[in-house]
Amino acid sequence: xxxxxxxxxxxxxxxxxxxxxxxxxxxxxxxxxxxxxxxxxxxxxxxxxxxxxxxxxxxxxxxxxxxxxxxxxxxxxxxxxxxxxxxxxxxxxxxxxxxxxxxxxxxxxxxxxxxxxxxxxxxxxxxxxxxxxxxxxxxxxxxxxxxxxxxxxxxxxxxxxxxxxxxxxxxxxxxxxxxxxxxxxxxxxxxxxxxxxxxxxxxxxxxxxxxxxxxxxxxxxxxxxxxxxxxxxxxxxxxxxxxxxxxxxxxxxxxxxxxxxxxxxxxxxxxxxxxxxxxxxxxxxxxxxxxxxxxxxxxxxxxxxxxxxxxxxx
Length: 314
What we know:
CATH class of the largest domain: Alpha Beta
Strand content: 15-25%
């Protein structure tokens, strides 16, 4: 049973963070649109992107799998979509879902139509869209103890260390996906994050058409903050030292953006005052809840879903 079935929700992000949000949101409403970053340049996605000059399919595949039907058909197809080949040859590391999306895009040349066809196969709840219909690169300028460094590429920017000075998409004048803009215009709520802040979340604020649509939308805005973990706890990804810093960076690159709610895990408790000030700076209210998966640095969809539903019902 859906918790808020009449709500129209748009979720922006990429990677595992967006997949966690979508897994939670699908239990709240079926009127759900995921808008996904398309700048991945690593692994299977990067190889397919380079060979076919197509969108990197990996983050889109994960979003589709997170929204598959909750029955034997949907679950089995989600498992197949996520399956990766293991070999000593060229197929090693490729996910089946990546190959399927790349094949449909190569055949028809229409990324949105290809995603819709796979969504129909998986009996997906809602819709998955790319934030642009051409592959993008991310370029960041970082200041560190060794000086100023320009870093290009999603996977490279995600693990870069230092103070972020500039961040841009290449090409810079990219157009947003029309279907995504239409979804934003009619949304009741728009969610952002969690995820690698520089490479999965901030890119959504760098497309002028999209940020204009977000700011014009009457939808309420929810920012789901990353867990307050030290860089060493995050594995390879750095992306800033705290959720408060993430909000300050967001304000720097999207100074006119205002949120209604910022949701943080209880791990921010020791610095709650700083967090409340950072959220107030972008017009919002801080809500703190236990949303972490025990023993990890990832969000728990089982915990996140009821908390988001409660926020939507306020």
